[in-house]
Amino acid sequence: xxxxxxxxxxxxxxxxxxxxxxxxxxxxxxxxxxxxxxxxxxxxxxxxxxxxxxxxxxxxxxxxxxxxxxxxxxxxxxxxxxxxxxxxxxxxxxxxxxxxxxxxxxxxxxxxxxxxxxxxxxxxxxxxxxxxxxxxxxxxxxxxxxxxxxxxxxxxxxxxxxxxxxxxxxxxxxxxxxxxxxxxxxxxxxxxxxxxxxxxxxxxxxxxxxxxxxxxxxxxxxxxxxxxxxxxxxxxxxxxxxxxxxxxxxxxxxxxxxxxxxxxxxxxxxxxxxxxxxxxxxxxxxxxxxxxxxxxxxxxxxxxxxxxxxxxxxxxxxxxxxxxxxxxxxxxxxxxxxxxxxxxxxxxxxxxxxxxxxxxxxxx
Length: 364
Fold this sequence. Notes:
- The strands form two sheets. A twelve-stranded antiparallel barrel has the order 1-2-3-5-6-7-8-9-11-14-15-16.
- It contains three helices and 16 strands.
- β15 and β16 (354-363) form a beta hairpin.
- The protein is mainly beta.
């Protein structure tokens, strides 16, 4: 479903949605309830009562003390483990590089992406706005806010700074500010601020082995659309995130999100995003923790349009893109980690054919 609102009205709508959620009495009550750790987790069994008399210990001959064995340090220090739900918590080992982590936590992230060969950059106005060439078409479309020429290939590099602040182990808010370097084939190379986004997470389940989170993200049109740096409309993205421990070292993470444009041209359309990832903690190598990660991420366009390099308009509904991502996350000390990964499209339709990602993350 596509909306038809001005940018000002769209921004007001997004702000109203966030404000209503934040100020709702029921939502406030949930926040108070969420402050109690593991309120929805199975309670620990109580010890059975006993009526036996205490037995007086018999003196024994002192023996040689047993040497103390030093256990390897946990994935997270005690201070962080308590902040995310307690000792042994699986969520502390989130290692994915492309799927959004389910764990609400206070952290800073800096991410670099280098992506190549996007041949439909205005598909559903998900990457950038409808080609500006339609402003000069017959009849002209004044809502075509993208770059002036059709494109055969667009490469780009993104530098994104992300800050998340947790209220407790259940609730957090975040903001992300990206800067983009755009390298088209027909339009001019350019760079600048892209569309920023902000939102919040609410963990509906936060147990030692399972985290299930609702996330709401709002994209704001801060990028210059006629240079290909933004979509020229607000977008709302509700989603569900999951982290599930499958074993001592194996962790599954997943996401399901719906990207909904508010306003935009007739090209704008809903895009579903879904993904699943597996990581395996190999243990320590020197001072670093090593976790290989495999992820599969997909997108399905529900409606909207796209243009090809000739300027012809096509229906984008039903376009499905699936990528495979392989990487490794290195835990550096107790609070820092570094992710390096590579992704490749497995389908004919693509947002990019290849992508390289490097991410540094620090928790507080």
